[in-house]
Amino acid sequence: MTGDFGLVAPAEAETPGDEWEEIDYADTDADRIARKRDREFSEFRERIKNTEQFKVEASVFDDATYGALYKLVQDGQIAAFGGPLSTGKEANVYTALGGEQAGEVLGDAHGDQPEVAVKVYRINASDFKDMREYLQGDPRFEGLGHNKKDVVLAWVRKEFANLKRAKKAGLRVPEPIAVERNVLVMEYLGTEEGRAKRLSEVHIENPETAYEVVREYMCRLFNAGLVHGDLSEYNIIFYEGQLVIIDLGQAVTIHHPNYDEFLQRDCENVANFFARQGVDTDGDQLRAFIEAQAETTDEA
Q1: Cα distance between residue 49 and residue 207, in whole Å
Q2: What is the pLDDT of residues 275-287, one digit of tens each?
Q3: 112 catalytic, yes or no?
């Protein structure tokens, strides 16, 4: 893997600090559609269930999930479904053809009907106890109880909000497009050969430059009041000459009671990977740099 890994510029809007807004995870139109079960929705559900490319599982797709997909189609976010990209413990990711609204979000470079990624979280199978570790103490989710559905829906909303916040702060992340109940639609990062490769899957010819870019993105995220919480070579990918940070569902605010532990883990994971590539760094050195940059920003 070669390239200069050019940094993206922060959004023109004021860079977010550590302020936050409460995130609403109450019932959405998808729940109401599922309860209503009108003829058009029923036909849509059967059509998706019978599509060979879009293999579904009972643990992923309940009626309300079909309702969410139906609503996203109605809203012009999704035009047609593709095949599966990945199957995980908490979510499945599928390709889809974006609708008119998705095209407007992604811009002219992606065309009128861009390819998008559709991430569908399991309500029943997700390990919501692990999710609660990252949600508990996040000021955006005060009052969140132990209901499994509420926890998963809060998680999906958090991932959408974190992606928007990271992008505004100048990180290269998948463009968040839409969220409905347990379904997240975002920019698809891939080519005709398949999904973009993770850092763990490629040879880096200029690791020093790659490290400096990742370090800068960690600084920007921290200055925006967030800590990734699970950053490593497995969720940094190389796409069109840039390094892209993915999987921000678990990212927490710096007001989270465990943010310190999560930041240290991120620094150690990233530094250890690049140290194996020959970069002179370690976790403590990386953390000191991030915190020093934050202090400089505060003073400015």
Answers
A1: 45
A2: 999 999 999 999 9
A3: no
